[in-house]
Structures are given as C-alpha cells and as structure tokens.
C-alpha cells in the first residue's frame, strides 16, 4: 500500500475536497430538518407550490442519501489512516481508537440533545467501535465485507417491501405523522429552550432507538466505514487520480446507474416507501461513488484542481463546520433564535445553505492560514493522543 503522505499532495487535497463537498451535500439535506419537521411528513404532500416541489425533487434525487454515505466513507478512510500510521510506528491503535470514538460519542450526544437532534456523530462513533475489530483486515477484504453489508440487506428489504406493496398497497404508503408534526412546530416554533430540548430528545429517540431504528442505523452506516477503510488501504484515491480515463468511465457508469435508481419513485410512485427505500439505500450510495470519482477526476487536472482547492479547507475542518452549521441553523429557525421554523420555502433554505457554506469555506481558509486545524479537530486530537498529539 502506498502512503498518501508520500509524494501525493493532489491525493491529500482530493480527500479534503471530498470531505468538504460531502459536508455541503449533507447540509443541503439537513437544512430541510432545520426549518421543518422533515422526519415526520411526506415531502411530496407537504410542499404545495410547484417551485418548492421542483426544488425538493432536485435535492431528493441528486443529494439525498448520496453525500452522507460519502462522508461516512471518509470517516472510515480516516480511521484506517490513523491505524496504519500507528502500525508503521509500532504503536497499538486500539486504545487511541477507543478514546477517539468515545470523545465523538459524547460530543454527538451533546450535539443531539442541546443543539440539533439530527446528529450523525454518535452513530459514527458506535460504528467506529465496531470498525476497530476489523481494521486488521486487508483492504480488499474490507471492501468486500462493506459491499456485502451494504447491498445484501438493502436488496432483501427492498424485495420484501415490494412484495408487501403488491399484497397490500396501503401497507407501504408514506403517511404524515400529524401529532409529531404538531409537536415539532409547537416546540421549535414557539417553545422555551427546555421544551425545545425535550422535543430534541424525543426526535433523536424516534430516529435512533424506537422500533429497532438503532439496528437500521448500524446497517445504514457501518458498511460505508468498511468501504472507506478498504479504499485507504488499497490507495483507491491515488489510483483514480493517476488514471483519469478509467476514473471517468467509473464516474459515467456509477452516475447513470445511480441516477436511474434514484429516479425509481419518480418513475413509479413517489408515495410508496418501497420505491423510496430503493432510491435511498441502493441508488444513493451508487450515485455518491460517482460523485467521489468525479471530484477525484477533477483534482487530477490543474485548472479544476485550483478551483476545487479552497473547498479542501472546509473538509479539513469538517467537524468544526458540521457543528457550526447546526448552531447557525437552529439559531435561525428555533424560537430561542430568530424563530423562522416552518416559515420558509425549500428554495430559500437552499440559498441559505449555499450562503452559509460559502462563508464557512472562506472562514476555513482564513483560519488554516494561521492554525494547523480547526478548534473541534484540535479538541478531538487532544482527546485521542494527549497534549502532544503525535499523530495528525
């Protein structure tokens, strides 16, 4: 395996650009949850105007479930990189990994309960603990295991949902949870901080714990960590960077396949959970891989490399920027902030997202001109390695 730190600056930049642009994609989807009770309604019934429906459709097909897998892959990629560095230095990684993921788990719970309930850090940390048991596997084996864990349950559940829809069409129809929607609007739109915190906890439990949701979260996230770890060990980024024609072909194949699968609900029935599940669990990751191939391909050419390079700073500070997005988003929409919850359109939310992210890119570049890493990255590193933080 070839080290990324040895003679591969474009590869390093490509990795940070992947993180930075994945963070933007996640932010676009999260914005829907910042300003509306997204987890409790059927979006194609909730948004009434043609402009809102069109804007949501673009986000649903091109962004939803395609960037969080990419971000999770980069998380596994980073864990494997730390493991290999420790191995090269003859040091054990297991206790470092435990400290890293424990810090992330605690930070995730604080984030979920006191800032925003859509936290992903806690889930990543739990999956990170499981990944520790398998990091000694070869890159090829990690890719195989991750791919099987991703697609076998997804295909099986898709077939079950299709059969259920065939036998009883009403059993797989999207429905809006009116009671939960009303509770969310009441709490986030006009509640006190204590009432909002209670609602945050309820939302987090509904998404992560209730009715076996935690197991679903595991099978939805863990495979991407395996794939990302395998990609690091096999130096996939380096190989794709050095072979632009092959990378372009990979992009085209995965992009067309992913786009077709993401369009299944639009082609057949948007209100059917079976088709939406295929769209998100199978089409989403495949389209995400095409984005990764495209970004790496662009980073292999001088002109596009220089255009994308500023986004690398946002990726290098992805933890800080992720948490900052939640703080800014909730301060804009929750009652203890500006109180715009439930009052803006999808298009307005998208433009807000673009504006905030653009400011983050500029701020990240300015910050990294003076410091080596972001404030939360520094805290994470210190918690992992101690005051001296021997590894990056």
From TrEMBL:
The chain crosses the membrane at residues 21-41, 61-81, 93-114, 120-135, 142-167, 214-236, 248-268, 288-307, 319-337, 349-368. It comes from Domibacillus epiphyticus. This is DUF418 domain-containing protein. It comes from the Bacteria. Pfam families: DUF418 (PF04235). The keyword Ribonucleoprotein does not apply. Residues 242-387 form the DUF418 domain. InterPro entries: Bact_Transport_Assoc, DUF418. PANTHER family: INNER MEMBRANE PROTEIN. Keywords: Membrane, Transmembrane, Transmembrane helix. The lineage of its organism: Bacteria, Bacillati, Bacillota, Bacilli, Bacillales.
